[in-house]
């Protein structure tokens, strides 16, 4: 789902054009912990299990009845998490 989406690429482009970080920020997918920002190596770690947990939450709350597609909602939550971690990196600088 992440690979088919342009969310990560779009967030990366926005970070590169709008945020002025001192060092390059890396977003790593498939990590075991997270989502989290590691200030020691300037990386955001996003485990695939994070997306699976978000998917499961949207099924439990019957999100399909809101009028927003579940995949869109999942990608919005994913984008929120990325920006949340980017904020940590920005504050850390």
Describe this structure in words.
- With 93 residues, the chain is mostly helical.
- It has one domain (7-92).
- Helices cover 52% and strands 12% of the residues.
- The chain contains three helices and three strands, in the order αβββαα.
- The protein has helices spanning 7-18, 48-60, 70-92; strands at 26-29, 36-38, 43-46.
- It has a three-stranded mixed β-sheet.
- A hairpin with a 4-residue loop joins β2 (36-38) and β3.
- α1 (7-18) packs parallel to α3 and α2 packs across α3.
- It is globular and about 45 Å long.
- The termini are far apart.
- The mean pLDDT is 80.
Q: How is the topology of this model organized?
A:
Elements lengths: L6 H12 L7 E4 L6 E3 L4 E4 L1 H13 L9 H23 L1
Parallel strand pairs: 1-3
Antiparallel strand pairs: 2-3
Helix pairs in contact: 1-3, 2-3
């Amino acid at each position: 789902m992440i690979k088919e989406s342009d969310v990560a690429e779009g967030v990366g482009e926005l970070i590169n054009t709008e945020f002025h970080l001192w060092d390059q920020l890396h977003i790593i997918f498939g990590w075991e912990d997270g989502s989290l920002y590691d200030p020691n190596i300037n990386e955001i770690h996003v485990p695939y299990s994070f997306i699976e947990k978000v998917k499961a939450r949207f099924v439990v709350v019957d999100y399909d009845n809101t009028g927003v597609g579940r995949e869109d909602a999942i990608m919005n939550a994913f984008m929120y998490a990325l920006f949340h971690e980017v904020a940590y990196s920005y504050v850390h600088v």
